[in-house]
Amino acid sequence: MEGVQATGSGFKVGPTPKLRPEWVEAADDGSVEFRLALSLALQASAFDRKTGMPLDPTRRHWLPLDKEKPWKFATTGTGSQTRLLIGPELVLQGRRGIDDAIGLVERRLIEANQCGQRRLPLQPAVRAAAYPADLAALIAGMTDVDRTLSLGRVLMALDRELWPQQFIEVSRPAQIEWPDDAWLVIRLALLPWPLMSRQGGEIRIGTDPAIFRRLVSGDASTAVELALRRLRAGGIRTAVRIATVSTETARLWAAAIAFPITPMAAAAFLRRLDPNVLSQGDRS
């Protein structure tokens, strides 16, 4: 229904009413696609520390929602000339999953740059972060990205206020797998927050949008080179030197950035790449 509304038909009935969190229990089929879709759907720029409510969630990239009244569509014109107000933030087109995922990251990087921020403002909701094993399957080309994004667009209608209040158990991967180390380098260079050392200090790795742009263009080698420079500037040394993958795989690596990870997962990635960095002095 939302796919039809996004084209400008039937939008007068309004967006889909909020879905209760129990829909996750009912729909969870234990698949990689479902877990990734949930992480994509519930992420936001940040979350209120007291209530867990999302600040600037991602649904506005799928549907043209009114900024002041997000339960309504944003429109322009009057009477019979009323139509949806289509802005540049509407990057989830519902056509190819990989293009939608890339478009989401690209848009968030643009908006962050416009605000003078050197970070990727996409953080996971509680109990809805992407698992490393699922990300490994994604960048290995073992998942249906179209189905993942289709599910993600639907799950964006979940009630964000009820989600942190209700404990909904989500399926987990059957085994532990790690994404390619070269992709981990890129992932650590595109975070929404600083990494933390064991001493509680911050390891700041300012995001360089050029890393993502090179990846989208199919140039994984240059993307990794740029990401390594950012990590070295933060005092992080890795054994990764180069990445040689196809253009299609590079774009899949780019799409995988759309699925948020937790600070704990980022720390695990860092330990895998540089086991010594978290035990050394602060690099703030």
In short:
With 284 residues, the chain is mainly alpha-helical. It has helices spanning 2-5, 22-27, 32-42, 97-114, 132-139, 145-155, 181-188, 209-216, 220-233, 247-256, 263-273, and strands at 44-47, 54-57, 75-76, 83-84, 195-196, 202-203.
Q: Please, could you describe this protein's structure?
A:
There is one protein chain. The chain has 284 residues and is mostly helical. Helices cover 38% and strands 6% of the residues. The protein has one domain (2-279). The strands form three sheets. It has a two-stranded antiparallel sheet. A hairpin with a 6-residue loop joins β3 and β4 (83-84). The termini are far apart. The relative contact order is 0.16.
Beta-strand segment tally:
6
Shape descriptor reads globular
Structurally, how many domains make up the residues? 1
Q: Walk across the major sheet and give the strand order.
A: 1-2
Oligomer: single chain
Structural class computed from helices and strand pairing: mainly alpha
Tell me the Rg in angstroms: 19 Å
Low-confidence regions = 279-284
Question: What's the rounded overall pLDDT mean?
Answer: 90
Q: Can you count the helices? A: 11
For the biggest sheet, the summary is: 2 strands, antiparallel
Order of helices and strands: HHHEEEEHHHHEEHHHH
